[in-house]
């Protein structure tokens, strides 16, 4: 028995008959068969199979012998295949004729139908006198323990599984960590949402600037805002207003227009201008309603959130245009070249036709007086801006521009928020890396937005850690501080420009002299630069609280319920 | 509206007033129903617990302030639409 255990396939064939003597064909009643790869047999192939009777030929000839061991030799190929396929199985065959072909076909069919594995002694005792067919069925129906071997999948499968598995694991972990990080920052600010707000008061409102990244559409910018900035604003119950730009220059125009409107409402420029835009008229109506019904806007610090380097450049340009440029549209350069700078004239040369058409229209439909005593540049244009209107002021004109009367001593604090966005097939590794490490981005942006939301302080752009001891006198520090501030404004998020496509960074032929806000360096006027402010970094105690929230030792701040405070 | 005589005017006014009254009562009963269901949960005594009372106060406060705020926003919306309707023909 142990011999069979060691070596390969065994086949038991049962038949209750005496064994006739002699020939291999008659070796019928119960046969065990095993494969051998080496042995005495000289013969090869199934025709020349050699059977050996167990226990000697004499016993087999004379008695009712139940078990006969038949060793037969396969070819090497057959033996190998059979051994690997049928290792460890016992097979019962119930056939009278015992040709090797039959054994083999039987073997195959039985094995393939997951035939029963059983031992001969059991077989012998339990199946006394039962017809062979029945035995076979009976044995088949009993569930045996299949001898399934555990083994590794093939090499290719292993490679495939490990690559996909590790990518999936990295992705899932990143998203999990990102979610946790965002929850941390949301919990840090959520107490602001629980503060009671008077019915006649409006919540704090920040302005969000987002524009389509170079070479792409607006939706990535929107998604970025929705993904990383919005959750915190919502958690802190802060309202926001979005200034969107679909193409280069939109943000600049939008912000400048907003600032000009503000200046006009405080008494500058042409007061006769009527808002033609439906949206603006509606806004004015709402403001009027709020004024009459004593609904007051939020009085504290508001703040500007600027997404990405490209938007930041436009934002700074828009600030200059809005504050230093004229309130009313300047005259079109071709008609009055004397008033315009040479640069502006040059830049306006490629498109004189719409401007001329524009001015012609205005002369017909809007007979405004050519000059205004209050404002040096004469505004013959209608208030409605032409779609391709030029900026009201160009960077070389900054130093000569008059300082507006209504300019505040410091502007709303602004924060550039990073907006990593890279395009292109060859950048796939970078993109995959960023795709799998968004948790760090979420953490960095969360910290920035939390500092906006919590507003632990406001500082000029020239503020540096070393200045902390000197306090509020930084504005008077003179040239050094001013240049430091300008540098800080100019270099904010500068690394993002490396992600921009070459196509974007190349100027169109024939328009080399024209201004490109995204490509030109940020030009700063000291008057504007010194008034720009930013939010102080998150206070250390808040940072520590965020850490405690992350580790789960502390929850968000819970405010007292008003009723509890009243002692009810 | 101008071509109605005095009687009809009075009738109209009456109806409007009745309608307003009805709306107000509706709102009031809604408020009472809502806050009662939310806050009052102990019927072993006929007086209100301090906890229940606080809850009712807050509930009513919340309801009224919400409707006030929503009303303001609606009025603003109305003002916007009015201004657009007025400025529309001139602006274009």
From TrEMBL, chain A:
One of its GO terms (biological process) is protein transport. Residues 541-551 have a biased composition (Basic and acidic residues). It is a single-pass membrane protein. It is found in: Mitochondrion inner membrane. InterPro entries: Lipid_Phosphate_FormReg, Mt_import_IM_translocase_Tim54. Residues 327-336, 367-402 have a biased composition (Pro residues). This is Mitochondrial import inner membrane translocase subunit TIM54. It comes from Glutinoglossum americanum.
UniProtKB/TrEMBL annotation, chain B:
One of its GO terms (cellular component) is mitochondrial inner membrane. It comes from the Eukaryota. Gene3D superfamilies: Mitochondrial import inner membrane translocase subunit tim13 like domains. Pfam families: zf-Tim10_DDP (PF02953). Keywords: Chaperone, Disulfide bond, Membrane, Metal-binding, Mitochondrion, Mitochondrion inner membrane, Protein transport, Translocation, Transport, Zinc. Coiled coil: none annotated. One of its GO terms (molecular function) is metal ion binding. It is found in: Mitochondrion inner membrane. GO terms for biological process: protein transport. It is a peripheral membrane protein. The keyword Lyase does not apply. The keyword Methyltransferase does not apply. InterPro entries: Mito_inner_translocase_sub (IPR050673), Tim10-like (IPR004217), Tim10-like_dom_sf (IPR035427). Residues 16-76 form the Tim10-like domain. Heterohexamer; composed of 3 copies of TIM9 and 3 copies of TIM10, named soluble 70 kDa complex. Associates with the TIM22 complex, whose core is composed of TIM22 and TIM54. Interacts with the transmembrane regions of multi-pass transmembrane proteins in transit. The twin CX3C motif contains 4 conserved Cys residues that form 2 disulfide bonds in the mitochondrial intermembrane space. Mitochondrial intermembrane chaperone that participates in the import and insertion of some multi-pass transmembrane proteins into the mitochondrial inner membrane. Also required for the transfer of beta-barrel precursors from the TOM complex to the sorting and assembly machinery (SAM complex) of the outer membrane. Acts as a chaperone-like protein that protects the hydrophobic precursors from aggregation and guide them through the mitochondrial intermembrane space. Belongs to the small Tim family. This is Mitochondrial import inner membrane translocase subunit. It comes from Glutinoglossum americanum. The gene is TIM9.
């Amino acid at each position: 028995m142990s011999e069979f255990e060691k070596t390969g396939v065994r086949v038991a064939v049962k038949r209750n008959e005496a064994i006739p003597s002699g020939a291999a064909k008659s070796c019928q009643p119960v046969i065990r068969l095993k494969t051998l790869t080496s042995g005495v047999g000289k013969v090869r192939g199934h025709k020349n199979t050699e059977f050996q009777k167990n226990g000697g030929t004499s016993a087999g000839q004379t008695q009712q012998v139940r078990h006969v061991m038949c060793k037969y030799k396969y070819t090497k190929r057959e033996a190998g295949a059979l051994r690997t396929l049928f290792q460890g199985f016992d097979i019962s065959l119930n056939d009278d004729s015992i040709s090797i072909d039959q054994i083999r076909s039987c073997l195959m069919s039985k094995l393939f139908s997951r035939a029963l594995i059983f031992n001969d002694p059991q077989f012998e005792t339990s199946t006394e006198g039962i017809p062979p067919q029945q035995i076979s069925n009976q044995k088949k129906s009993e569930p045996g323990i299949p001898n399934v071997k555990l083994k590794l999948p093939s090499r290719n499968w292993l490679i495939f599984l490990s690559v996909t598995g590790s990518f999936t694991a990295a992705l899932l972990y990143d998203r999990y960590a990102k979610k946790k990080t965002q929850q941390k920052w949301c919990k840090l600010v959520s107490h602001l949402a629980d503060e009671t707000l008077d019915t006649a008061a409006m919540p704090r409102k920040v302005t969000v600037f987002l524009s389509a990244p170079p070479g792409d559409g607006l939706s990535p910018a929107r998604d970025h805002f929705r993904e990383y900035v919005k959750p915190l604003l919502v958690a802190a119950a802060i309202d926001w207003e979005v200034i969107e730009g679909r193409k280069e220059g939109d943000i600049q125009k939008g912000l400048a227009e907003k600032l000009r409107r503000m200046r006009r409402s405080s008494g500058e420029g042409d007061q006769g201008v009527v808002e033609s835009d439906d949206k603006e008229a509606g806004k004015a109506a709402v403001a009027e309603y709020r004024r009459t019904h004593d609904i007051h806007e939020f009085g504290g610090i508001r703040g500007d959130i600027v997404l990405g380097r490209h938007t930041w450049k436009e934002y700074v340009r828009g600030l200059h245009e809005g504050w230093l440029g004229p309130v009313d549209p300047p005259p079109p350069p071709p008609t009055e070249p004397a008033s315009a700078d040479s640069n502006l004239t040059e830049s306006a040369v490629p498109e004189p036709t719409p401007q001329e058409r524009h001015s012609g229209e205005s002369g017909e439909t809007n007979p405004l007086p050519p000059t205004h005593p209050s404002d040096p540049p004469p505004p013959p244009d209608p208030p409605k801006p032409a779609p391709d209107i030029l900026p009201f002021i160009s960077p070389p004109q900054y130093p000569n521009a008059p300082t507006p009367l209504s300019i505040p001593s410091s502007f709303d604090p602004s924060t550039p928020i990073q907006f990593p966005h890279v395009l292109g097939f060859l950048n796939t590794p970078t993109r995959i890396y960023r795709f799998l490490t968004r948790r760090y981005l979420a953490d960095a942006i969360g910290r920035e937005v939390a500092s906006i939301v919590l507003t632990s302080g406001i500082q000029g752009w020239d503020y540096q850690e070393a200045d902390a001891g000197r306090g509020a006198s930084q504005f008077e520090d003179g040239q050094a501080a001013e240049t430091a501030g300008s540098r800080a404004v100019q270099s904010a998020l500068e690394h993002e420009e490396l992600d921009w496509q070459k196509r974007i960074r190349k100027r169109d032929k024939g328009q080399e002299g024209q201004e490109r806000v995204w490509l030109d360096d940020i030009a700063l006027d000291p008057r504007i630069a010194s008034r720009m402010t930013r939010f102080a970094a998150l206070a250390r105690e808040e940072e520590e609280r965020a850490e405690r929230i992350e580790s789960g030792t502390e929850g968000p701040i819970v405010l007292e319920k008003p009723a509890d405070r009243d002692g009810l | 509206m101008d071509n109605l005589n005095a009687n009809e005017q009075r009738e109209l006014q009456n109806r409007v007033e009745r309608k307003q009254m009805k709306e107000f009562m509706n709102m009031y009963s809604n408020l009472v129903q809502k806050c009662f269901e939310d806050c009052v949960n102990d019927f072993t005594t006929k007086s209100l617990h301090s906890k229940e009372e606080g809850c009712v106060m807050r509930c009513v406060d919340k309801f009224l302030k919400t409707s006030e705020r929503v009303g303001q926003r609606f009025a603003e919306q109305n003002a916007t639409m009015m201004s657009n309707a007025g400025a529309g023909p001139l602006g274009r």
